[in-house]
């Protein structure tokens, strides 16, 4: 069998290939052509959307492009930082207020 | 011969025969249908499974879908070793050969243009996983004795988490920049859900790169070198795939 020259061995493919990878490509990529069995037109789009729910979660699927992870607090340090900074500031403020109100008790607590 | 025609891909004529033991969707070996100087790779599929209604029902069945998707990919994969196929999406079915011929005639220009663009190129998939949800497991070892201790611990936790994501983000960004500068084209795909991919860690980069066969070896080495570069980051390479991610935009 002729194999194109200088082609590295397949990586992570063949029978052991990740199902998510295969479905991602076979369902979602490649060209869409109107077969004369009608399902190929709209239904494959619907199916793709439905399966995207499994292959990727919808909120992430909506965000394409280089910055798709930036708005997700679970993924983005920036979004996370904002949330935690706010939480931290709030807690610090509350503690300061408490210490102000009850100086003696705060002193007591600081002792080992 | 009865049955419907399932189409896998459109290619330019290729001299090399496909592997003789190759079976396609529904177990029928694929064959080449030549028309207008193009080749549609087709196989026969039974009406009871692939007519519109049963196909619609089957597509909802993950087991059936898995088997069919693997068979479809198997044929595309075999084609990729002998030519540059233009992969069609799963489930492209025609009533008979003349339906396939009509389709080729209608899209002839598109096919030629896209085949020209993709000739001799393959797709590589690169994914980056952040291995751990760090410090989440290393929760406060001892209970905070005072409010101040609690805050200190909380701050430290936040900081290491923040560092972790910053690290993942910048690693993924850097890698993508480097690889897309080398590749002819690239696409970012949504991260994969671990429920289906069964991969551990969080998928922070899921990209596809279009690389010529001649440069593929170099590309693979480039990706391999980044493995283990940053602790906690796992780089996964898949391919060579037919140029699925780059076949679509001709229309």
UniProtKB/TrEMBL annotation, chain A:
Q: Which UniProt keywords apply?
A: Coiled coil, Gas vesicle
Q: Where does the record place a coiled coil?
A: 74-101
Q: What is its main location?
A: other
**GO molecular function term, any single one:** structural molecule activity
Query: Where does the record say this protein resides?
Result: Gas vesicle
Q: Name one GO cellular component term.
A: gas vesicle
PANTHER family, alphabetically?
GAS VESICLE PROTEIN A1, GAS VESICLE STRUCTURAL PROTEIN 2-RELATED
Q: What family does this chain come from, according to its entry?
A: Belongs to the gas vesicle GvpA family.
Q: What is this protein called?
A: Gas vesicle structural protein
Q: Which organism is it from?
A: Streptomyces caelestis
Taxonomic lineage of the native organism: Bacteria, Bacillati, Actinomycetota, Actinomycetes, Kitasatosporales
From TrEMBL, chain B:
Top-rank taxon, per record: Bacteria
Compartments in which it is found: Gas vesicle
Q: What family is it from?
A: Belongs to the gas vesicle GvpF/GvpL family.
One Pfam family of this chain: GvpL_GvpF
Record-given protein name: Gas vesicle protein
Broad class of the protein's primary localization: other
Which terms in the GO cellular component ontology are assigned? gas vesicle
- On whether Cell cycle is a keyword of this UniProt record, the answer is no
Sorted alphabetically, which InterPro entries does this protein's record hold?
Answer: GvpL/GvpF
- Keyword check for Transmembrane helix, yes or no: no
Please list the GO biological process terms of this entry.
Answer: gas vesicle organization
**Keyword list, A-Z:** Gas vesicle
């Amino acid at each position: 069998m002729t194999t194109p020259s200088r082609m590295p061995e397949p990586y992570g493919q063949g029978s052991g290939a990740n199902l998510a990878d295969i479905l991602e490509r076979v369902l979602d990529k490649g060209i869409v052509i109107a077969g004369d069995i009608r399902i190929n037109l709209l239904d494959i789009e619907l199916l793709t959307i439905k399966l995207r729910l499994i292959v990727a979660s919808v909120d992430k699927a909506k965000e394409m492009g280089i910055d798709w992870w930036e708005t997700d607090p679970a993924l983005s340090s920036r979004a996370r930082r904002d949330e935690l900074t706010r939480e931290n500031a709030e807690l610090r403020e509350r503690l300061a207020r408490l210490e102000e109100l009850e100086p003696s008790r705060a002193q007591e607590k600081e002792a080992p | 011969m009865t049955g419907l025609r399932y189409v896998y891909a459109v290619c330019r004529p290729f001299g090399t025969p496909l592997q003789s033991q190759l079976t396609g969707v529904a177990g029928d070996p694929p064959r080449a249908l030549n028309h207008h100087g193009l080749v549609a790779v087709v196989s026969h599929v039974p009406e009871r499974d692939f007519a519109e209604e049963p196909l619609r029902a089957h597509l909802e069945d993950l087991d059936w879908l898995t088997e069919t998707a693997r068979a479809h990919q198997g044929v595309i994969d075999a084609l990729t070793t002998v030519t540059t196929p233009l992969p069609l999406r799963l489930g492209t079915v025609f009533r008979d050969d003349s339906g396939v011929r009509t389709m080729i005639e209608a899209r002839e220009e598109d096919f030629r243009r896209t085949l020209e663009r993709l000739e001799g190129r393959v797709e590589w998939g690169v994914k980056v996983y952040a291995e751990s949800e760090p410090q989440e497991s290393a929760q406060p070892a001892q209970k905070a004795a005072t409010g101040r201790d609690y805050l200190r611990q909380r701050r430290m936790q936040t900081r290491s988490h923040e560092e972790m994501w910053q690290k993942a983000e910048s690693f993924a960004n850097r890698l993508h920049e480097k690889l897309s500068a080398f590749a002819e084209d690239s696409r970012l795909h949504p991260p994969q859900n671990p429920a289906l991919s069964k991969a551990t860690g969080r998928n922070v980069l899921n990209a596809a790169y279009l690389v010529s066969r001649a440069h593929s070896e170099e590309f693979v080495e480039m990706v391999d070198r980044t493995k283990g570069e940053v602790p906690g980051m796992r780089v996964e390479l898949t391919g060579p795939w037919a140029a699925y991610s780059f076949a679509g935009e001709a229309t």
